[in-house]
Amino acid sequence: MDSASPSSVSPTKQEDDHVTSITEEHETTCWGCGLRLIISPYAPIFKCGWCGAITNHNARKYDNKYFWLRRLRDRCFVVILLLFMLFIIGSGVWAIYPTIFSTGYFYGIFHMTVTGILSIATLSTYVLASSRSPGAPPRIYWGSYPAMGRNGLMDYTFCNVCSNPKSPNTHHCRSCGMCVLDMDHHCPFIGNCVGAGNHRSFILFLMSAVTSTFYVSIISANILYQIWPPLRHIPSVTLTWSTIFTYLAESALPFLISVESLSIRGFLLIYLFFASVSVEIGLAVLLWQQICFIYEGKTYLSSLSSNSNGNDEVEEKDCQNIVRFFGCSNPATRYLLSFWNFKKSHKK
Ligand SMILES: [Zn+2]
Ligand SMILES: [Zn+2]
Ligand SMILES: [Zn+2]
């Protein structure tokens, strides 16, 4: 055994003799390597000097009582959201296509193709992100000193529910009932955790959802403009900065009257426009935040813990993090990124 083994660990006979002289309450066993540790009294959290595992006597004991209820809630939400997406696609096609095909046959075919691609991309990435396992941590040997090498469990904690070690980036999710490797957060919209196993599908879903909602907002605004009933009493004010308020006030009433003669398709388009714009803003903010975390080599949860510990520069900010995340091994991307990094290092 390593001669530099710390004083808190008692692997040798000599140290074992030393242990016996200390009262029972000062002595405990490391869950990671099984060695006896001598700790000061009233120290509920301590780190093993040999394997690096952290033992926390105050660790919360989760009750798994309502696990099935949380799972059911998540699954119901996924079904509701899937139905909502199908409703948006179906009603969008019904409201938009008559006008699009009346403009031109090829124009209609073009938009049909775009709608098809965006719908398939959004629905498939959504199903993948919500049904894929978020990624369980790999099973590792623990609990015996000869098998567990020095620092073999550095900063690992123990999950009382799964009865398995957790690496620093692994967290237990009560809704999923499992430990999740590189857990980002539990997303109620996909009814699943976002972790090492489905993070890429989640980002691809956000990307296709933002693109789809952007497309829906543009196309519904455009069709609305085309089918809006003409205003009967157009105000005859010449538009300048001083008359703009008079113009708006005078056109408000004719505008409201024109809404009356708007078709059911028109009302649906108004709904589609506002729904897609609001969803698009929310998802775009989330996507931007996620891309920033990937660029910084972090997850949402690890950024929270690094902020609370005060060490912000744990991982290096690098575009390679994004490439690694998406698994692009294309030589062209590698060349472009090395060029970008070369420029960056010369600017410093
Ligand atoms: Zn240990
Ligand atoms: Zn667990
Ligand atoms: Zn979860």
From TrEMBL:
Q: How does this protein sit in the membrane?
A: Multi-pass membrane protein
Q: Which GO terms describe its cellular component?
A: endoplasmic reticulum; Golgi apparatus
Q: Name one GO molecular function term.
A: protein-cysteine S-palmitoyltransferase activity
Query: Which protein, by its recorded name, is this?
Result: S-acyltransferase
Where are the membrane-spanning stretches?
Answer: 76-97, 109-129, 202-228, 234-256, 268-288
Determine if Transferase is one of this entry's keywords.
Answer: yes
Pfam families this protein is in? DHHC
**The reaction(s) this protein catalyses:** L-cysteinyl-[protein] + hexadecanoyl-CoA = S-hexadecanoyl-L-cysteinyl-[protein] + CoA
GO terms for biological process, alphabetical: protein targeting to membrane
Q: What is known of its domains?
A: The DHHC domain is required for palmitoyltransferase activity.
Q: What is its main location?
A: membrane
What sequence ranges are listed for the domain Palmitoyltransferase DHHC? 156-302
EC numbers on record: 2.3.1.225
Q: Where is this region: Disordered?
A: 1-20
Biased composition, Polar residues: where in the chain?
1-12
Q: Which family does it belong to?
A: Belongs to the DHHC palmitoyltransferase family.
Recite the UniProt keywords alphabetically.
Acyltransferase, Membrane, Transferase, Transmembrane, Transmembrane helix
Q: Where in the cell is it found?
A: Endomembrane system
